[in-house]
Design brief:
The longest helix has 13 residues. The protein is mainly beta. It has a single domain, classed as Maltoporin, Chain A (Beta Barrel), CATH 2.40.170.20. The chain is built from 4 helices and 35 strands. It is found in: Cell outer membrane. It holds the Pfam family Plug. It is a multi-pass membrane protein.
Length: about 675
């Protein structure tokens, strides 16, 4: 497989620096599992890569759980599995993606000014069997990560070819039926890859979820000399009935079961189609890369979180729509230079995207039928970023990484309420720096600091009138500054144990967000987070791997009244680990994994806290010499009665006071279930 842009950024400094006359091209690198040793190549302690073997060895419930290979990262769900997941990392409740930048082969996945939430990141279109590797970087220290990257970012990379055609058939509890297949063959001067997935699933819910997912991938790639290129087409459609969070009092009173719904008509439909092209040329002392992409995204959601609080007769269901075209691309060059008695690897580039949002709306509905409009807008948003970074090897034991990024944005809103239409523009510069010390060949110490940002919803930057109450409201800042610093240690021992530990702090000037559920802005105070993350990976045998990650975080609003500074939904501790047995060829294989996140605050004064959650998942199977693979997965092995996510707010059930009742609203984790699959490799 070819190296991705982020892989190149990680490996090229060492590779280029090692070159001597006569010049030679940098060879490709194959990422199989977790990359064992990043000493000498990593720019910060909180970055890494996870390969295809380790990704596929994890028993997962949903596609987005592939991101849980990032230390301290949690992906949950509060609604139907066709909707974007709820994400958490480093003391952030990221909602559906704000402050964590996610990409796929050069295409951004976060959606700004989205109908359901700023930075909305839907990963349900992924086919896990076709994911080659994942690159991640936490913190604000990487110049190639711009908007939404305050907590960090990750990039998925799909395979360009498979060694042999494959097909997998999976069935299991709650109506699960899934088929995934793929293969590649020569076409012209290159290789054509075709793959896809069909999935149906009802879940344990009283009203079946009725997931109907269809995903397809077509990729043509070729190489000539030191240049390679790829054209990638993707298609995805999904429809489902939602299993939204429910109040604890409704279960305690017997109104609904733990797996019931208050409004059984909630649900949604989603579609995503994309076409992208990549080009890369690896020279003797330079690498040039280019990406172009076009994306069409379509989402319609029907939700009801407060039930009868606003409308006692018809209920509070609402619909959110988002239909857009995203056009963009990037150019980058990595170059080796020699000056001031040191070797420098300089990378500079430009990134651009334009979001043409033809329909972003919020509507009142009853049983999925529109009965009123809160607001209906058209948005054009452009963002252009330029960056430059120099990694300098001053001695064999010391190197520095200095960089700066500049971003400029324009926001144009055409609203059904003329007072909320308008144009805004903003720009921000983000310097970053890391110092790396190597006391010996197996150890590195890192000190890093930098500035980052996230953009706010375009509608919030031009709003003057609340569309629901018609009261005057203030506009929000288009771009919100973040500041971060980190000290860390990376150790790669001779016994095969790879460990990192990082102490980090991160501050946001404001957590101002546009609230899609209300169609208005909800400003909050500035915030500060800090914590420690410990990540370990040990391979005592080629077929045996053990890993364990522990993350602690402290999140507080700044300037808040004493005793009211907690940030609701901010996870305070996350523990994840597992053991995997995976022979390189045939024979028995298996994995056992645990994921735990502790209690966390649901309100600012910490008077109400969410319950902790611990899940245990397992895989076991056998691969025959003939290429047949048999596998059984058991999810929630201990059948724990825990929750995916919890909120605290007021809602109203039939017969309750008009002002509603404050209560914990939760979405339960699914009970124990068994899934069996049969796969073939021809």
């Amino acid at each position: 497989m070819r190296r991705s842009p982020l892989v190149a950024a990680l490996l090229l400094p060492a590779a280029l620096a090692a070159q001597s006359s006569p010049p030679r091209t940098v060879d490709t690198v194959k990422v199989i599992g977790r990359v064992d040793d990043l000493v000498g190549t990593a720019r910060s302690v909180s970055e890494g890569r996870v390969g295809r073997v380790d990704l596929q060895a994890r028993p997962i419930t949903r596609e987005a759980e592939l991101l849980e290979t990032v230390p301290g990262f949690i992906a949950t769900q509060h609604s139907g599995d066709g909707k974007a997941n709820q994400y958490f990392v480093r003391g952030f409740n990221l909602d559906h993606g704000t402050d964590f930048a996610t990409r796929l082969d050069g295409m951004p996945l976060n959606m700004p000014s989205h109908g359901h939430g700023q930075g909305y990141t839907d990963l349900n279109f992924l086919v896990p069997e076709l994911v080659d590797h994942l690159d991640y970087a936490l913190g604000v220290y990487h110049t190639e990560i711009g908007d939404f990257g305050s907590a960090g970012g990750a990039e998925f990379h799909l395979v360009r070819a498979v060694d042999r055609p494959f097909a997998t058939v999976t069935g299991g509890a709650n109506g699960l039926a899934r088929v995934a297949a793929g293969g590649s063959s020569a076409l012209g001067s290159g290789t054509l890859l075709l793959g896809g997935e069909v999935k149906r699933y009802d879940g344990p819910w009283v009203r079946p979820e009725g997931i109907r997912k269809y995903s397809g991938v077509a990729r043509w790639s070729a190489r000539r000399g030191a240049s390679d290129w790829s054209i990638l087409g993707m298609a995805y459609r999904n429809a489902w009935n939602a299993s939204d969070q429910i109040p604890r009092r409704a279960v305690a009173s017997g109104l609904v079961s733990r797996f019931g719904q208050i409004d059984s008509t909630d649900g949604g439909e989603a579609a995503r189609y994309s076409l992208s092209a990549q080009y890369r040329h690896v020279g003797a002392r330079a690498v040039r890369e280019a990406h172009l992409y076009g994306i069409y995204s379509d989402l319609t959601l029907f939700s009801n979180f407060e039930y009868f609080l606003g409308d006692a007769a018809s209920g509070d269901q609402f619909s959110q729509t988002d239909r857009r075209v995203v056009l963009g691309g990037s150019l980058a060059q990595t170059q080796q230079l020699a000056a001031l008695g040191a070797t420098h690897v300089v990378k500079f580039g430009v990134q651009h995207r334009t979001d043409l949002v033809g329909d972003v709306g919020l509507f009142n509905t009853v049983a999925r039928r529109r009965v009123g409009t809160v607001r209906d807008d058209r948005v054009t948003e452009t963002g252009t970023g330029v960056f430059a970074e120099a990694e300098s090897r001053w001695t064999a034991r010391f190197r520095s990484v200095l960089g700066v990024r500049g971003d400029a944005y324009t926001f144009d809103v055409s609203s059904d309420t003329p007072a909320n239409s308008g144009h805004r523009a903003a720009a921000v510069a983000s310097p970053k720096a890391s110092l790396v010390f190597a006391p010996d060949e197996r150890t590195e110490l890192y000190v890093g600091a930098g500035l980052g940002f996230h953009s706010n919803d375009a509608r919030g930057t031009t709003i003057t009138v609340d569309p629901a109450t018609h009261d005057s409201v203030g506009r929000v800042s288009p771009l919100v500054r973040s500041r971060g610093a980190e000290v860390g240690l990376r150790v790669s021992s001779a016994t095969g144990l790879r460990s990192t530990v990082s102490l980090w702090v991160l501050g946001l000037d404001s957590e101002l967000l546009f609230v899609g559920d209300a169609g208005a802005t909800a400003p909050s105070a500035a915030s500060r987070r800090g914590g420690v993350t410990l990540a370990n990976d040990w391979r005592p045998l080629p077929s045996l791997s053990l890993d364990g990650d522990v993350s602690f975080a402290r999140a507080r609003f700044r300037g808040a009244a004493r005793g009211s500074s907690r940030i609701p939904g901010a996870l305070e501790n996350v523990v994840a680990g597992g053991v995997t047995w995976l022979p390189s060829r045939h024979g028995a294989f298996g994995a056992l994994r645990v994921r735990h996140f502790g209690s966390y605050p649901l309100v600012e004064d910490d008077a109400v806290r969410a319950r902790a959650s611990t899940l245990l998942n397992a895989d076991a199977g056998y691969r025959l010499r003939t290429g047949v693979r048999m596998q059984v997965s058991v999810l929630n092995l201990a059948n724990r009665r825990v929750d995916d996510i919890q909120y605290f707010y007021a809602s109203r059930l039939p017969g309750e006071p008009a002002s509603g009742v404050d209560d914990v609203h939760f979405h339960p984790a699914e009970p124990r279930q068994v899934r069996a699959s049969l796969g073939w490799h021809w």
